[in-house]
Design brief:
Largest interface: A-B, 66 and 68 residues
Helix content of chain B: 25-40%
Distance between the termini of chain B: 26 Å
Radius of gyration of chain A: 21 Å
CATH superfamily of the largest domain in chain B: FAD/NAD(P)-binding domain
Shape of chain A: globular
Number of domains of chain B: 2
CATH topology of the largest domain in chain A: Fumarate Reductase Iron-sulfur Protein, Chain B, domain 2
Number of helices of chain A: 7
Largest sheet of chain B: 8 strands, mixed
Number of strands of chain B: 20
CATH class of the largest domain in chain A: Mainly Alpha
CATH architecture of the largest domain in chain A: Orthogonal Bundle
CATH topology of the largest domain in chain B: FAD/NAD(P)-binding domain
Number of helices of chain B: 10
Helix content of chain A: 25-40%
Radius of gyration of chain B: 21 Å
Distance between the termini of chain A: 53 Å
Shape of chain B: globular
Oligomer: heterodimer
CATH architecture of the largest domain in chain B: 3-Layer(bba) Sandwich
Largest sheet of chain A: 5 strands, mixed
Order of helices and strands of chain B: EHEEHEEHHEHEEHEEEEEHEEEEHEEHEH
Strand content of chain B: 25-35%
CATH superfamily of the largest domain in chain A: Alpha-helical ferredoxin
Strand content of chain A: 15-25%
CATH class of the largest domain in chain B: Alpha Beta
Chain lengths: ~240, ~375
C-alpha cells in the first residue's frame, strides 16, 4: 500500500439522506438528512455508525463483519444495490449519499428488511463449502484439498435489483438459482436431476428477463446471470419437464 | 421453568442455545442487529490456540478444545485449511522450541516444516522464511457460525429481539428482576421481567453493570483489521513470535484479512480506524506475504475486544483472552444478575457452558450441558424456522 502522507486529509461534510421508516410512527417512509464529517477512508457503514452513535440512537440498519463477508449491510446507495461496508463514501463523488432499503422485501424499520423470503428457495442444508481455487505454484495435497466458503454472502442485492423478481413474486430469483447451480456441482446425478427440475419449473429460470442487473450489482462477483444461463442451457439440453411446483 | 434474560446478541447466542437445551425459558435482547458488536466483526480465525502458548496457556488449551468441538457442531461454517507459524528472523527462530513445547503442553498438534516444505504448500510466503510450524488453525465465517447458535436457540424456543436496547435494569432493592428496554422499531419502552438477567454485552458490559450500581473488570481493547481482495494463501499465516501487531493473515472466501492492531480504550463504540494502523498492517503483513505490499484496502474496520482487566497500563497483547462469569450476588450483593466477560469467538461455546453451569447452580437445577455434542442447525434455519 502506498502511503502518500502521514497527514490526514481534511474532513469533508457529506449529507446522508436516509429513508426512514418506523411502522405506525414514520409511516409512510420519508427521507431525513444528517451531516457527517468524512475522511477518505470512511465507508458508508462507518457513516451510519457515526449517525447512530452521535445523532440518532434509533437509526436501524444491519451490519456485522464490516468487510463483505456477512452480507447484512446491503442497501441501495444512490439508487444502486451495494454493501455499505465496502463502499467508500468519497468514491461516490457526490455531496449527498442517498440510502434506501433493498427493494422487494418487507420493511422492518429504516434500512432493515425482513430476509425470510430471500431464503424461501435456498435449502438450509445446501453446502457452504467449495474447493478453493489453487494458488499458482502450490502443491495442494490431493488427499487434503483446500476448501473455501461459497462466494455468495446472501446479501440480497441481486434480488433487489432484479426486475423479474419484482414482476413475479413466485420467481425463485437470482440468488436462489445461483445457489442451486452451485449445489448441483456437489451432488450425485439423481440429486442433480431434482435440482435441475426445480430450476426449470414455472417459478425458475424461465422468468429471468436477462436484465443482468444481478451480475452488475453482486458485491462478491458471483455473477448470478451466468449461473441462470447455464441452468437454462442444461434444462433445455436435458429436456427436463417442468415440475408442477 | 425459570425465565433467563440475556443482554447481548453476540456470545449471548451460544448461551441462549445452551440454556434452551437445558430447558430454560430464554429471551435475548440486542440493541442492534445480531452480531453487530464484537462477535461478528473479527478476522475469522478459529484459533488452534498456538497464538496463546507463549503467555496464556489456559486460553491456548481452551481454544484447541473448542476448535475441535466447533468443527464437529458447525462444520459448514469453517474453512478447515490449517495454519502456519513462520519465523522470519533469528529472533523469531529463537521462539520456535518454546512454541513447540507450549503446543505439546496445551495438547495442540504442531508439526515443524522446513522452509521448502512451507513454500511448497504456500508459495506466496516470504521466501526468506527460516522455519515454519503447522497447527490446526482454521477460518470461520464469523457471522454464519454464530448465526447457527441463534438459529438452533430459536428453533428450541428462545425469543430473540433485535433493535431492542436495554435502558435500565428493573431493580427491587438489591434484586434485579428484569430489564427496561426501548424497541427502536416501535419506539416503545417496556419492562421484561426475568428470574435472572445475564449481562453478555461484551465490551459494553460495564454500562449494564453500572445500571446496577456496580463495576465489572472489563477493558475495551479495540483493534484494526484490513481486508484485501484475493486469497493470498490457503492456510492462516501467523508470525512465530509472542503476540504483536500485524502478525496474522487470515484468508477467507476470496479475500484475505490482515490483522491486527490493539490499544486500550474507554469507549467500546470505536468507529474509526486510524490511518497509521492501516499502514502498519500492510507493512508488517507484507513481511509474511510480500505480495500484500502491492495490494489496496478492500475494507478497513475496527472492533473492540472484551478484555478482562488485570492492571492499568497493561500491554493489550499480553492480557489473557480467557473468560470469566460473575455471580453478582456473591461478588456485590446484587441478586439476579450474572455477568459473562472476556473470551473470544473461538471459545463462545465454552463461555456459554460455564455461565449456564453457574445459572444451574443458582436456580437449584440439575441440568447437564449438551452443547459439546449437539450439532447446530444450519444458520439459514434462523429465517426458515418452519422446516
Amino acid at each position: 500500500m502506498k502511503i502518500e502522507t502521514t497527514e490526514k486529509k481534511p474532513w469533508r461534510q457529506i449529507e446522508f439522506r436516509i429513508e426512514r421508516f418506523k411502522p405506525g410512527r414514520i409511516d409512510p417512509p420519508r427521507f431525513q438528512s444528517f451531516r457527517v464529517a468524512v475522511d477518505d477512508q470512511m465507508s458508508v457503514l462507518d457513516g451510519l455508525e457515526q449517525i447512530r452513535l452521535r445523532q440518532d440512537a434509533g437509526l436501524m440498519y444491519r451490519h456485522s463483519c464490516h468487510h463483505s463477508a456477512c452480507g447484512t449491510c446491503a442497501c441501495r446507495i444512490n439508487g444502486v444495490e451495494r454493501l455499505a461496508c465496502t463502499t467508500r463514501i468519497l468514491s461516490l463523488n457526490t455531496e449527498t449519499v442517498v440510502l434506501e432499503p433493498l427493494r422487494g422485501f418487507p420493511r422492518l424499520g429504516d434500512l432493515v428488511v425482513e430476509m425470510t423470503a430471500f431464503y424461501r428457495d435456498i435449502d438450509p442444508a445446501w453446502s457452504l463449502l467449495t474447493p478453493a481455487e489453487p494458488i499458482h505454484g502450490a502443491a495442494d495435497p490431493a488427499e487434503d484439498p483446500s476448501l473455501r466458503l461459497e462466494a455468495c454472502i446472501e446479501c440480497g442485492c441481486c434480488v433487489s435489483s432484479c426486475p423479474a423478481a419484482h414482476r413475479h413474486a413466485e420467481f425463485m430469483g437470482p440468488a436462489a438459482l445461483a445457489a442451486l447451480h452451485r449445489q448441483m456441482a456437489k451432488v450425485d446425478a439423481a440429486r442433480q436431476h431434482d435440482l435441475l427440475a426445480a430450476a426449470a419449473s414455472p417459478r425458475g429460470e424461465r422468468l429471468c428477463e436477462r436484465a443482468l442487473n444481478c451480475s452488475r450489482v453482486c458485491p462478491t462477483d458471483v455473477y448470478p446471470a451466468r449461473h441462470i444461463a447455464d441452468l437454462r442451457r442444461r434444462a433445455k439440453a436435458s429436456g427436463t419437464p417442468p415440475s408442477l411446483k | 421453568m425459570e425465565h433467563i434474560l440475556i443482554i447481548g446478541g453476540g456470545v449471548g447466542g451460544s448461551l441462549a442455545h445452551d440454556l434452551t437445551l437445558r430447558g430454560y425459558r430464554v429471551t435475548l435482547v440486542e440493541r442492534g442487529e445480531l452480531l453487530s458488536g464484537t462477535t461478528g466483526r473479527h478476522h475469522g480465525l478459529l484459533h488452534s490456540g498456538g497464538r496463546y502458548v507463549f503467555h496464556d496457556a489456559e486460553t491456548a488449551r481452551e481454544c484447541y478444545e473448542e476448535n475441535r468441538i466447533l468443527r464437529h457442531i458447525a462444520s459448514e461454517a469453517i474453512e478447515p485449511n490449517g495454519g502456519l507459524f513462520i519465523a522470519l528472523t533469528d529472533e523469531d527462530l529463537s521462539h520456535r522450541d518454546r512454541f513447540l513445547e507450549g503446543c505439546i503442553a496445551a495438547g495442540i498438534p504442531a508439526a515443524p516444516l522446513s522452509p521448502r516444505q512451507a513454500l511448497a504448500r504456500e508459495p506466496t510466503l516470504n521466501p526468506a522464511l527460516l522455519a515454519a510450524v503447522r497447527v490446526p488453525d482454521a477460518v470461520m465465517d464469523a457471522w454464519r457460525l454464530a448465526m447457527a447458535f441463534f438459529a438452533t436457540a430459536r428453533a428450541n424456543g428462545a425469543v430473540i429481539r433485535t433493535f431492542c436496547e436495554v435502558t435500565d435494569l428493573k431493580m427491587f432493592g438489591r434484586q434485579v428482576a428484569g430489564v427496561r428496554v426501548i424497541d427502536h422499531r416501535s419506539g416503545l419502552s417496556e419492562t421484561i421481567g426475568a428470574d435472572l438477567v445475564v449481562n453478555a454485552a461484551g465490551p459494553w458490559s460495564g454500562r449494564i453493570a453500572a445500571m446496577a450500581g456496580i463495576g465489572v473488570p472489563i477493558q475495551p481493547g479495540p483493534g484494526v483489521m484490513v481486508a484485501v481482495r484475493g486469497r493470498v494463501t490457503q492456510a492462516v499465516v501467523n508470525r512465530l513470535h509472542p503476540a504483536g501487531e500485524g502478525d496474522i493473515i487470515v484468508p477467507q472466501r476470496r479475500l484475505s484479512v490482515l490483522g491486527t492492531t490493539a490499544w486500550l480504550a474507554d469507549d467500546p463504540d470505536q468507529v474509526t480506524a486510524p490511518a497509521e494502523h492501516v499502514a502498519r498492517l500492510f507493512a508488517l503483513c507484507a513481511e509474511l506475504v510480500p505480495a500484500v505490499a502491492a495490494m489496496t484496502p478492500h475494507a478497513v474496520w475496527s472492533a473492540s475486544r472484551p478484555l478482562l482487566q488485570s492492571s492499568p497500563n497493561q500491554d493489550p497483547f499480553a492480557i489473557s483472552r480467557t473468560f470469566d462469569c460473575f455471580d453478582h450476588a456473591a461478588r456485590d450483593g446484587i441478586e439476579g444478575l450474572v455477568t459473562l466477560i472476556g473470551g473470544k469467538a473461538t471459545t463462545m461455546r465454552a463461555m456459554a457452558e460455564q455461565t449456564a453451569d453457574l445459572i444451574v447452580r443458582k436456580t437449584g437445577r440439575d441440568f447437564a450441558c449438551r452443547t459439546r455434542e449437539t450439532v447446530l442447525l444450519p444458520y439459514r434455519r434462523y429465517w426458515r424456522g418452519d422446516i
